[in-house]
Write a structure and sequence with these properties.
By secondary structure, this protein is mainly alpha-helical. The chain is built from six helices and two strands. The chain has two domains: 65 residues, Winged helix-like DNA-binding domain superfamily/Winged helix DNA-binding domain (Arc Repressor Mutant, subunit A, Orthogonal Bundle); 51 residues, Diphtheria Toxin Repressor, domain 2, CATH 1.10.60.
């Protein structure tokens, strides 16, 4: 399932927040990402329609199984790419920001090659 970059960013944010608490709300997503409540509501609605998130009985936003799988993949890309950039001497803030951009566009083949390289040469 192909998502736009913004959808991937929302999924990754929900995943990150859900690692800290099981009670992820739209307001939490907005604060984390710096987006307005209407923007978050629209994005969450699109993710619901795609079967990637749902709202539980208390109104908390949860990842579906498919959403969790996709979010973990995006997060792995972010962390591996950040480590790679740090390892080659990129300043931390720049590495994090660039990894966030790259993670949405890099091919699966290239990402798998980077993971193999990092495993072989240490991270």
């Amino acid at each position: 399932m192909a998502l736009l970059e913004s959808g991937e960013m929302y999924l990754e944010t929900i995943y990150i927040l859900s690692q800290k608490t099981s009670e992820v709300r739209g307001i939490d997503i907005g604060e984390y990402m710096g987006f307005s409540k209407p923007s978050v509501s629209r994005a969450v609605g699109l993710l619901k329609n795609s079967g990637l998130v749902y709202t539980d009985d208390l109104g908390f936003i949860k990842l579906t199984e498919a959403g969790l799988e996709k979010a973990k993949d995006i997060y792995e890309r972010h962390t591996v790419l950040t480590k790679l950039l740090l390892n080659i001497g990129v300043e931390e803030e720049t590495a994090v920001n660039d990894a966030c951009r790259i993670e949405h566009y890099i091919s699966e083949e290239t990402f798998e090659a980077i993971k193999a390289y990092m495993a072989k040469h240490g991270s």
